[in-house]
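Standup notes, structure subgroup. Blocker cleared on the flavin-adenine dinucleotide input:
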Amino acid sequence: MDAMSHRDDPHADLREEVAKLCARFPGEYWRKLDEVRGYPTEFVNALTEAGYLAALIPEEYGGAGLGLSAAAAILEEVQRQGCNGAACHAQMYIMGTILRHGSDAQKAEYLPKIASGELRLQAFGVTEPTSGTDTTALRTTARREGDKYIVNGQKIWTSRAEHSDLMLLLARTTPREQVQKKTEGLSTFIVDMRTVLNKGLTIRPIRTMMNHNSCEVFFDNMEVPAENLVGEEGRGFRYILDGMNAERLLIASECIGDAKWFIEKAVGYAKERVLFNRPIGQNQGVQFPIAKAYAQMRAAEAIVHKGLEKFERGERPGEEANMGKMLAAEASWAAGEACVNTHGGFGFAEEYDIERKFRETRLYQVAPISTNLILSYLGEHVLGMPRSY
Ligand SMILES: Cc1cc2nc3c(=O)[nH]c(=O)nc-3n(C[C@H](O)[C@H](O)[C@H](O)COP(=O)(O)OP(=O)(O)OC[C@H]3O[C@@H](n4cnc5c(N)ncnc54)[C@H](O)[C@@H]3O)c2cc1C
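Run returned:
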C-alpha cells in the first residue's frame, strides 16, 4: 500500500481494474489529442465497454447498479492515472435526472441504451452566455405546440455536444414574469440531437486552454417531442438541483485524483533529481509545498468520503458536497503548483504531461460551480447568513 491509498478501501479492486484500463491510454495518447483538441473516443469506448460509465445505472436497466462512492472511485482513479474523465464524466451524473424524474417509458427507452453505449448522454445544456451562474435568468424558451415543444435560444459551454447523441436541456416554458418564484417555469428535456442537428440545432466548438470539447449550441425553432419532457413541466430547475450533490462529489473525486497524480509525480522527481550533491526533495523549500498539498488533498478527501457516505445513506450531503468540491479543486491546484515548481523548467515541457494536467485541473475552481457560489451556499444554507445574491 502506498501513501496515497487507504487501508480497508472497499473499492481497491475496482480502482486496480480502472488503473489497468487507463494504462492502455498513456500520456502520449492524451498529448496527441491535446494538440488537435481531439476527443478521446477510444478511451471513452473502453470505459463504456467495461461498464464504468454505467456504474450508477441500476441493474434492471443494464447498468452496474453501484453506489456513488464506486463512481467516485472510478473517476478519481482515471485522473490519478493521468487520463481525463472530463470527456465523459457527465454521463455518470446527468442520467440521474432521467432515473429520478423520468417516466417509466423514458427510463425503459434510454437507460439500457445509455448503459450499453448505444446512446451517449454526454451533453448538459444549462449555462447561457447572458445568464451564467444566474441560471434562472436563462433565456432559452420551449413553447408547447400540440405534441411538441419549439425551442429557441442559445447555450454556451455545452461540453461534448459534438460527441453525444442526447442532450439534457433546461429551458423556460413559462415566462419569468408569469411565475411566482423565478425557479418555477423551467423544464428539462431529453433532446435527441441526432434528429435535429442542422435542423434547428447548430453546434459550434469553442477552443479553450485545455482539451475539453466544449461548444456553443444554438436553437432555432428546434422541435422536441412533448414525450421528451422529463417529469412535470415547470419543475425542471428542481430536477437539475437534485443532481448537484452527486455532480459535486464526483468532480471533487476527480480533483483528488489529479492531486494524487501531481503529488506522486512531484515526490518521485524530488527524490531523483540531484543538484548541489543532494536530491532536491531534501530541501524544505521543495518538500513542504508538496507535503502541504498532500495535507490539503487528504482533508478534502475526508470530507468527500463523508459526503459520499451520507449520499449512500439517503441523506442530503449539501454541505460536504460543496465544501468537498471547493477544497478538492484547491488541493489539486496546490498540488499542480508544487509539481510544476518541483520540476523547474521540465514542468513546462509537454512530454511530462504536467502542464497539460495543470491546465485541465484549473477548470474545477470555476466549473461546474465557481468557488464564490460554493462560499455563498455555505454562508447562507450552512451558516444562516443572509442570501448574498
Ligand atoms: C470548459 C467548461 C466546460 C463547461 N461545461 C458545461 C456544460 O457541459 N454544461 C453547462 O451547462 N455549463 C458548462 N460550463 C459552464 C460553467 O458551469 C460556468 O462557466 C460556471 O457556472 C460559471 O458561469 P459563467 O462562466 O457564466 O460565469 P459568471 O456567472 O459570469 O461568473 C463570473 C464570475 O463572477 C462570480 N460571481 C457571479 N455571481 C456572483 C455572486 N452572486 N457572488 C459572488 N461571485 C459571483 C463567479 O463566481 C465567477 O467568478 C462549462 C464551463 C467551462 C469553462
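Discussed briefly. Residues 124-127, 132-133, 157-159, 208, 212, 214, 363, 366-370, 372-373, 376, 388-389 surround flavin-adenine dinucleotide (CB under 6 Å).
Next: hand off to the docking folks.
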